[in-house]
Fold Glycerate dehydrogenase.
Amino acid sequence: MRGVFLDTLTMKLEELDTSALEHAVDHWDFFETTSPRQTAERITNADVVITNKVVLDRALIDNAPNLKLICVCATGTNNIDLDAAAEKNIPVKNVAGYTGSSLAQHTLALMLALATRWHQYNDDVQQGRWSQSPIFCRLDYPVIELAGKTLGIIGYGDLGQKVARLGEALGMEILVAASFTGEKKPGRTPLETLLAESDVVSLHCPLTEQTDRLVNRDFLAAMKDSAFLINTARGGLVDEPALVTALKEHQIAGAALDVLSVEPPPQDHPLLTGNIPNLILTPHCAWVSRESRQRLLDGVVGNINRHFQP
């Protein structure tokens, strides 16, 4: 039985324990990256295909006669034609919950950066401005205490709950947005109320028809002008041009994003103009701790073993 891993570069396998993966099938072909024109040839004889972001559309699935299992090395399966796979009785298995504390930790780091402006103070130190100061400290950027502030969480699965506990540890009040499905859940807050009362709004919901461009002009206008927005979920949740306007016109105090609608982003992306000082961007790295990647790999191996050794 042959397996193909199409984009190992997204996992940095040399840092992980891959012994269980290596024994999951008889032979593996590992590729750091796979372009669309290379995919068909690489999967044509495969029984198992692992992909993180490489697209498997209907034509590719139809022309892989040995294919018995598709493993997505991620939670989202939007890069797979699920209907085509189902028609050929090919299971598509993803891995959920592997980010564990890594993503919540990164969300907290972004929140603290917005509140303390430590990254800008660090830049000033490196540029020699502290050495030039007439007093013992610098007070160039406003710092706020998160204790006593309100953290609004949109999306209250495992990750949203972890972030809520971290916020509570800082002394923050927690508001959880009402479900987008209309399901009534006790203790939830209507979105308009959450936006009006929150000092930090953190996104942890999936990207669906209901949440696509959720953070639009009206959403941003409903936030406090002193509030921060954090997105470590999906880039498509945010109308990015609207966010640029809100930041430049100080409709909100700042934003920190780990995800964008197109990744990697083009150099002319509106959020990469370089003149938005109240914006922090990190390159979709909230999940990349070694522990998180090991859990993800173990989850993929588990999916393979359960399929072939039920």
Q: What stands out?
A: DSSP finds eleven helices and eleven strands in the chain.
